[in-house]
Amino acid sequence: MFKTSLPLGLIPLFVLSGCTTFTHPSASERKASIAEAVAGLKQEVLEHVSKSTFQVINSASPFTFEFTANGSDFHYEIQLASKTATGSAALATAISKDGYLLSAAHVARPYVAVIGWMDGAVRMKFARVVYKKYFGTFGAEIAVLHVEATLDSPLALHDRDAKQAKVYAFVRNFENDSTLAVVAGHIFHVTTSELEPQIAVAGTDLTTWRGDSGGGVMSPDGYLIGVTTGYKFALEGARLVCMPSPQFIEGIVGNDRADLSNKKTRTDAH
To answer: Which residue intervals of 3-97 are DSSP H helices?
Structure first.
């Protein structure tokens, strides 16, 4: 087995602000942006959302893992099936107590494990890909994952208030991958499609980077409105946020719950 060590933590929480140049903020910019973001999001919102955010480890090939945790500090190592296999890291957001998470489609590779607050502690478990889809050419993509656990701090998905341009996204800390950060930014463009009315894509100036995909995006009042997905040079290098309608995601989750219930009924009958 090929072993790689990817130590990542969940908390403590750092707060950073977005900038239009898409570069890492300087130390002075970082200090100023912490004050800006803290002023925009209440501390209890930050603490709750930090527990709603999950690290995602994924691969196109099978892998096993070794995991240890002490409170919110944890370490893991993954064992890939071969030296040619690769694993990557991303994010997802808990959206229900019974194990459903929202992420980006390109995060939902064939083998996925998630790390976060479940069953009362920070744990690492394999997840099942319930749904993944790329919606045409306008940059929309979404995935729903499911893990067999009770998620401690899920967030309900809301429709975005079209009058609000300010947004916040949970990402990895630029200076230390073992922690999370929150970046602040603005929506400057929204794309919709008549063929896919249940999905909208926002162009933003959020300073998201590789590894941040699937992180939850919040409105100033702390409501989850979507997930980060990537960037698009056609929109001046915009960082994209996919915003599915709550009814669309509820339908996916509801259908999966019904399928699981039917399977359990058939199993119990035998």
So the answer is: 27-40, 43-52
